[in-house]
Automatic annotation (TrEMBL):
<protein>
    <recommendedName>
        <fullName>Tetratricopeptide repeat protein</fullName>
    </recommendedName>
</protein>
Length: 376
């Protein structure tokens, strides 16, 4: 059973309620009887209608004070909606009635209108009313129909779904049915991946990313995706990403590649810093024996090594120091993974410890980063 709108404290508190004759006080300030007096409210509403016969708020006040579910009440609500379709209390009351009657499609018509005219209501209405009810097939179908029209609150739904730490059958069904009706937006794909990761399904998140990878990027699939930096960085953890850092500029460069067309060039401006370099999250790695290898052309002159490190949570699985002198040089390091790692992360750092050792200037070129399994 869907909860009524009045049972959603965050949403209900945001509504600028106009109970009784307060709804029309702006039209006739003198007609503002104390709340809880139906006769006075009705008199005030009728007074307004004599001078403004198409005032939807006045019809709503009459409907609120009429016998519930009576033909007269329904007619008044219809008038209120017809003449004031953007009135928040009218939409809220009609959504309540539809929810209590078990009519989610009708309720969503009014909730959609509420979220359009009051953006501040989007998060509480979606999070507290709709997300817990995604297991209701009728509501889910109605929600899908609205999402098909690409309402302005659709991105908010994806964001809230991404924050769920527990996967639900209703949410997964919504994602599947939404994808069946048309391609998900990039932000929605990321939200679905993030939700799976938060729910502890790293394998499912990675598989979802692989399934939706464009055909032009499929050739770069390997344990390390695009280890030659031939493609642009992406918005998911499974692409290369490099944080912005003062004193560091990181770009793909086609003028000095070791393999392929591009290499990654990191320029340092001579500042002392804790270098936070490129990183990438992988799909699950099974237990086994592996080889980590990479090429570098180090023109920084710094005595401390740049190094790739493979992490599983807080555990360091492998460390690969790179060349400390100019010219392309390949380095490799074998390692044994005793137990599977669900979400390994490879990142580049610098071994400098003291302030002088952390002063970085010049160029570092990177290419041909690979992890290959050595045992069958």
């Amino acid at each position: 059973m869907l909860v009524a709108l009045a049972a959603v404290p965050a949403a209900w508190w945001l509504l600028p309620h106009d109970h009784g004759a307060a709804a029309i006080a702006g039209w006739h300030p003198a007609l503002n009887p104390p709340p809880g007096e139906p006769a006075a409210a009705q008199a005030a509403a009728r007074a307004v209608l004599r001078s403004a016969p198409v005032n939807g708020q006045a019809f709503r006040v009459l409907a609120q004070n009429a016998e519930a579910d009576s033909p007269a009440s329904q007619a008044l609500w219809a008038q209120a909606l017809a003449w004031a379709p953007r009135d928040i209390d009218t939409r809220a009351a009609l959504a309540d009635q539809a929810l209590e009657a078990g009519k989610p499609a009708a309720a969503l018509q009014h909730l959609d209108a509420l979220m359009r005219v009051q953006p501040a209501l989007r998060a509480p209405l979606l999070e507290q009313m709709l997300l817990p009810e995604l297991g209701n097939p009728a509501l889910r179908t109605a929600l899908l129909d609205h999402l098909q029209a690409d309402p302005p609150w659709r991105p908010h739904l994806a964001t809230l779904l991404a924050r769920q730490t527990q996967a639900t059958a209703g949410a997964e069904a919504l994602w599947q049915q939404l994808a069946a009706r048309g391609p998900l937006a990039p932000a929605e794909l990321q939200a679905r991946q993030q939700q799976r990761r938060l729910a502890g399904d790293a394998a499912g998140a990675y598989q979802l990313w692989r399934e939706h990878l464009p055909p032009t990027l499929q050739p770069y699939l390997a344990t390390v995706f695009d280890g030659g930096f031939e493609t642009e960085p992406g918005d998911t953890p499974y692409h290369w990403r490099w944080p912005r850092q003062a004193g560091v500029a990181t770009v793909r460069d086609d003028s000095h590649a070791r393999d392929g067309q591009y290499a990654l060039r990191v320029e340092f401006a001579g500042r002392s810093l804790r270098f936070d370099g490129p990183r990438q999250t992988f799909g699950p790695l099974p237990a086994g024996t592996y080889l980590l290898q990479a090429s570098a052309d180090n023109r920084t002159g710094n005595p401390r090594a740049f190094q790739w490190q493979l992490h599983c949570g807080r555990q360091i699985l492998a460390t690969l120091p790179l060349a400390d002198s100019p010219g392309w040089q390949n380095r490799q390091q074998g390692f044994v993974l005793a137990t599977p790692c669900n979400e390994p992360v490879l990142r580049l750092g610098h071994a400098g410890r003291t302030v002088p050792e952390r002063v970085l200037r010049g160029s570092l070129w990177l290419d041909s980063v690979q992890i290959t399994r050595q045992d069958p």
